[in-house]
Amino acid sequence: MFAQLFRDASFAVINRPMETQHFHVRYLSEELVRRTQKNNAYSLRSFARDLDITSSWLSEVLNGKKGMSEDKAGIMATSLGLSSVERKLFQLSVKAAHARSRKDRLLAQKELSNFEQGKSSLQKMSVDGFQPFSEWYFLPLLEMSELTECEHTPEWFAKKLNLSVTLTTDALKRLIAGKQMIYENGKFHASHTESSTTFDIPSAAIKKFHQQMMSQAERALTEQPVQQREFTNMTLAFEGDRVEDAQRFIRKFQQEFAEQFYPDKAQQKDSVYQLSIQFFRLDQKGN
pLDDT tens across 10-48, in order? Predict the structure, then answer.
């Protein structure tokens, strides 16, 4: 069924069942399908160009005939704009499959297994999957459950977010029903350590979320002291055909920011912050 989506004759359709594929191969395959469905003119050759590799090499990787080094996996993860968790899985998958020594492959396989179990976790949400949780307060509720001082009651969450107890209780119930949150032993906690939505797909739900977060930013601008916030702006003349390069750079920064300031096990988490980056065109597009 994939053959109709790929316009490159050099691409051989993957015949192995998806569940037997390594994570890095599966991710590349699914990303190629996503981009091709988005743009009928997109092809394997286009994908290889965007990853700065040859189409023949990429075809062999997708078919399990070619491996890659850890360094190459890191470069490719950056080009793909992977999150910190996806990047870790991608590199471990490559090492587990292609490390030169059997010992290194076995160690990587064990680490990959432990990582996947501990992060049962990694969640790539579809636009439809995100829609029920697109109100601005759903994500803060998930993050607040990690705070050291969390009292794990609807009343505590409501007070911290300046929401009604009724609204907060309903939101917690929806998160649990939607398998985004778990309540056990008297405590709430997120079902996944990291979630992300798809990129570059128009969505009313995602637009609404961003609009609400911008309203929260406007409130913070007037109410929070400068020592507790950071607002900066840059206006620049720009080459319009480099937008995708800028997007990849921003996503790479987000990944590095998360790795620096959002470790899996922080000693003390006493606050929830929102990082928003805005990059958009100010002038009107001419003919």
Answer: 333 333 333 346 888 888 988 898 888 888 899 999 999
List, for residues 163-194, the tens digit of each pLDDT value: 999 999 999 999 999 888 999 999 998 887 66
Q: Are 194 and 115 within one domain?
A: no
Q: Are residues 67 and 24 in the same domain?
A: yes
Q: Give yes or no: residues 67 and 155 share one domain.
A: no
Last residue of a domain, one of 120, 152, 187: 120
89 shares a domain with 18 = yes
Q: Is residue 285 part of a domain?
A: no
97 and 187 in one domain? Answer: no
**How confident is the model over 95-146, as pLDDT tens digits?**
988 888 888 889 888 888 776 655 545 566 666 777 888 899 999 999 999 8
Q: Which of 39, 37, 57 is nearest to 48 (CA)?
A: 57
Question: What domain range is 76 assigned to?
Answer: 2-120
50 and 115 both lie in a single domain: yes
What predicted TM-score, i.e. pTM, was given to this entire model?
Answer: 0.58
Placement of tokens 């939505």 in the chain: 197
Q: Are 154 and 245 within one domain?
A: yes
